[in-house]
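Per your request, structure below.
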């Protein structure tokens, strides 16, 4: 991942005698790296006020203050963990547009659960996209997991119903539901996802334990629009951030958390099935700044 703020030391040495220019350039870099204007203001106002009040003249202290502000936004006191039910199965509804790495994220998530000795069932509820079932089946076969799937264009709600009933009967610990990422209209997609959510609630007397949206970290500001749309219809409980091993800037994470209040729960950072981790804001902030 690229640093959120490049050449911070250079900026400080160049503009420390002109503090206004230093802070203006810093704000510009944040915004260019997918941090919203409101989020950038929140970060810099607190740091700048403290620097002026305490007459700080040390860029390392400023870096540490920036890191603390980023962690505060990301709720970094504790690692983000997934919510689970005391009464199995715990159900994870995974949403997101096509092309963000949703299928591979589901496989990695399933592998993580399997590594903990849990019994995992995957529901192939993306019945619209060609090869969607084949892709998820490739991973479940590789992991030795059970998959519930129906014919293409069948009712996704029926797939989820069968999955929940099977999970209850055969005592699965976790159910991970793959969903469509594109339909004829955004309205149709959201209505279909809301229907799936209702099917889960009807069969378990509760909503899915997590409704997680998969976001490609290289998407930029469009990711905020995507998250807003899905959150408005479903009430997202968290984000799975993919492709963090590349050249992504990372600022969109701050924007989504600060502007929408949706926590980042997991990140993926490679091609291997073990390349998934619970989100750690301290590590993330350090990669963004140092």
């Amino acid at each position: 991942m690229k640093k959120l703020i490049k050449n911070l030391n250079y900026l400080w040495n160049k503009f420390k005698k002109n503090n206004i220019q230093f802070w203006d350039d810093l704000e510009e870099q944040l915004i260019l790296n997918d941090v919203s204007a409101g989020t950038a203001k929140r970060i810099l106002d607190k740091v700048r006020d403290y620097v002026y009040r305490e007459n700080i003249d040390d860029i390392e202290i400023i870096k540490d203050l920036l890191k603390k502000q980023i962690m505060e936004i990301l709720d970094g006191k504790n690692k983000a963990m997934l919510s689970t039910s005391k009464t199995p199965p715990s159900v994870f509804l995974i949403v997101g547009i096509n092309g963000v790495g949703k299928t591979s994220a589901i496989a990695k998530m399933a592998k993580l659960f399997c590594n903990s000795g849990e019994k995992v069932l995957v529901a192939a509820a993306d019945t619209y996209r060609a090869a969607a079932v084949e892709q998820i089946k490739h991973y479940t076969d590789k992991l030795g997991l059970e998959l519930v799937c129906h014919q293409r264009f069948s009712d996704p709600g029926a797939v989820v119903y069968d999955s929940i009933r099977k999970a209850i009967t055969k005592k699965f610990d976790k159910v991970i539901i793959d969903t469509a990422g594109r339909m004829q209209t955004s309205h149709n997609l959201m209505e279909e996802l809301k229907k799936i959510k209702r099917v889960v609630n009807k069969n378990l007397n509760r909503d899915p334990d997590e409704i997680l949206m998969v976001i490609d970290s290289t998407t930029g500001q469009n990711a905020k629009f995507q998250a807003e749309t899905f959150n408005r219809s479903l009430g997202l409980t968290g984000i799975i951030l993919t492709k963090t091993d590349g050249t992504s800037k990372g600022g969109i994470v701050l924007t989504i958390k600060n502007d929408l209040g949706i926590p980042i729960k997991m990140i993926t950072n490679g091609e291997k099935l073990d390349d998934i981790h619970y989100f750690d804001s301290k590590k993330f902030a350090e990669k963004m700044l140092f």
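The first strand starts at residue 90 and ends at 95.

Regards,
D.
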